[in-house]
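Exercise: predict the fold of this chain.
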Amino acid sequence: MTARDGRGTPAISRAWIDGIACPTCGVAVEAMRERLRCAKCQQSWPVIDGVPHFVESFPYWGEMPAEQMQAVNRRAAEGSWRAALLESEDPSVHKASEMILNVDRANWHWLIDLPAESRVLDLGAGTGTNAHGLGMRFAEVTAVEPVMERIDFMRHRFAQEGLSNVNVLRSSLWILPFLKNSFDMVAMNGVLEWVATGIPGNPMELQKRALENVHNLIRPDGYFYLGIENRFNLGYFAGYPDPHCGLPWVTIIPRPMADWYARRHGQPDGYRQYLYSSAGYRKLLESAGFNRIEIYLALPTYNHPRFLIPLEDNVFDYYRQSFASGHVRSRKRKVLDLIRGTGLLKHCEYSFAILARK
């Protein structure tokens, strides 16, 4: 929770500091004036506008171009983060606003039986949509994000919404400055597929290592949430490009072939943004130490989840209702009936919402 020091600038609460650890030594940090310090190795990190910075720089990535994001932040600093989005005349801002404003994006948390006093970590928090939704239910939420423009936006967002229980920390998935077993739940929404980008090594092994790092932060019997795309989405078979690398076919062909294909099409690092099937995610999570894994179909997408349907359920009923209108040709209904008979429909959806336990 954030308080203010004598100069009126944000200051960090003692309770939150007690949960932050040196990413090198693993011991709790000490609060100094405008810095955090490790008493063991003497390394220190700045605290700027109430936000600890464990990374100094990070390339921009976001839902809109950097220039537009900076303009939104300037407007948000004047007093209304919502107006900064809704009153912008830039098309890229309008397009991004739907997802940024949609706190229902975090409605998966109602599937979890954690008490209100729980401590939650949102990794790769972006512009704070999930952290916002989680902060309305849980006592303490920590939003971790490396991109500075997004950090600034979240500061304005949470301050103006009065969400003093949502703390912002600048870091990355590979620098997790927290004590072990310190969170009741950790969430990663649209993050796991990116962890191997720009880092040498086998992408699957890097993803496993990232999940093991997350596993260490969760208290026994705590939860992990993963929102992510399905490798075998029907659209990929039709030649739709993968939204992460921009190339068609890479998700569905064998990994070595996808790597060769990406290099031939101007991506020198090859194919790095691995996605998996429902069985693949289950295997990956189990290899990182998680158990009691529940997989839901997130419809229409995990970023706009109107429905969360257990994978074991009959997802076809959803489609029958969607296509019950007389405006839909009977031929489409017959095609769906045919697909239903194969039992494959639920394995070809766009994305999953996955819950796992430690």
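Check your answer against the key: The radius of gyration is 21 Å.
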